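Final report, Chapter 2: Outcomes

The project's central promise was a pipeline that accepts a single protein chain and returns its three-dimensional structure in a standardized token representation, suitable for archiving and comparison. That pipeline is now operational. To close this chapter, we reproduce one record exactly as it appears in the project archive, with the input sequence first and the structure output second.
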Amino acid sequence: MKLHDLKPNEGSRKNRKRVGRGIAAGQGKTAGRGTKGQGARSGGGPRLYHQGGNLPFYRRLPFVRGKGMTVLNRVEYNEVNLDQLGEFKAKSEVSPDTLAEARLLRDPRNPVVLLGRGDVSVALNVSVHRVSQGARDKIEAAGGSVEILPIEA
């Protein structure tokens, strides 16, 4: 293959439409602009951001801010506190699966965050997606361990 052999794929390049070249061409006379009106005039058409009399988007934005806006890529966590882990025995494994079996998760598909409300008296091996510093300190003080799991997108 040489440079002079290269050509675009069949059907990927189309000739531009030449308007206003007589009625036989199919786009003659008004050249696709319709009859009369703002869009038919040269330089015609509404200004940028015009929305036909509606309040334009950029002027509507201040009213939309706040509780109406939602963050599209927000991560919703299942919040579990230390005082909820009372039913787990010493040296037991605490993971999203075991927490779901214990019915401590609101939505098992979401990642789990462990928060520090309450105390833990037995050593637990905890595997969660996020943990607060206070909860980590309390678990390690009781002789347990904390492992951070990756969040699957």
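Archive annotation: The CA atoms of residues 5 and 13 lie 17 Å apart.
This record, like all others produced under the grant, will remain available to the consortium after the project formally closes.
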